[in-house]
Write a structure and sequence with these properties.
This protein has a domain of about 160 residues: 3-Layer(aba) Sandwich (Rossmann fold). The protein is mostly helical. The protein is about 45% helix and about 5% strand. It starts with about 25 loop residues before the first helix and ends in an 11-residue tail after the last strand.
Length: about 230
């Protein structure tokens, strides 16, 4: 056998490596869905959040707008919060995360308007715009939800809260009503800012009042009048 016809040497065959089924490549595109399917099959989130022996843990989360595809801001927000919740679960706490979406407001209406022609915009009424915004918001909720789940975020995805739900809107009205009734019947004693130009013996010119953050504060008049003793 001549040197030119000798088989090429594979140096990896000369190394004494461990024999393991563990892949040398992450292959995340395939492995991540498999891991998430295992989580879902074993109901890990549900079991840990309900059966852990520790205290309840709640991370209050401000909802994103239902107005388009997910971006890096969503990733930073939700992944960091997911780390907090999973850490609480590993500590034995009953951590639940109820996701939500803000389905009202100008950002959603702007997205709807961007998808309409000038003639369609001219025919819009306030009611029809709200109806289109409602439909658009629900579509975006489902799209964002799928993205969050694909990122591996643990949450009560089947029971989110949406600000367009009638029960949510009714609860808001109830809270505002309670606040209004409470404010009219009693004084809370909350601090109230007193501008310097309204203070007795103040030398501050009234022409250029300072920002409110620089005003001294006092209790409301039913508790104590200005100046304090």
């Amino acid at each position: 056998m001549t040197a030119s016809s000798a088989p090429a040497t594979s140096y990896k065959d000369t190394l004494n490596l461990l024999q393991t089924p563990f892949s040398m490549r992450a292959n995340a595109k395939v492995r991540e869905p498999e891991i998430q399917a295992f989580w879902a099959e074993q109901r890990l989130y549900e079991r840990l959040s309900q059966e852990n022996s520790g205290p309840a843990f709640t991370l209050h989360d401000g909802p994103p707008y239902a107005n388009g595809a997910l971006h890096v801001g969503h990733a930073l927000n939700k992944i960091l919060k997911d780390i907090i919740n999973k850490t609480a679960l590993l500590q034995g706490k009953r951590a639940r995360f109820i996701p939500g979406w803000d389905c009202h407001g100008l950002p959603i209406e702007l997205k709807v308007l961007q998808g309409l022609s000038s003639s369609e915009r001219a025919e819009l009424t306030p009611v029809s715009l709200r109806q289109k915004a409602h439909t658009y918001a629900l579509e975006q909720v489902e799209g964002q939800k799928a993205g969050f789940r694909r990122w591996g975020i643990w949450a009560d995805w089947d029971q989110p809260y949406l600000t367009l739900q009638k029960s949510y809107e009714a609860a808001q009205i109830g809270v505002f009503g309670a606040i209004s009734i409470g404010a009219s019947n009693r004084c809370t004693g909350a601090p109230a800012p007193v501008p310097p130009w309204r203070r007795p013996n103040s030398n501050t010119p009234t022409a250029t009042p300072p920002p409110a953050s620089m005003w001294p504060s006092r209790r409301c008049s039913c508790l104590k009048a200005w100046p304090p003793n």
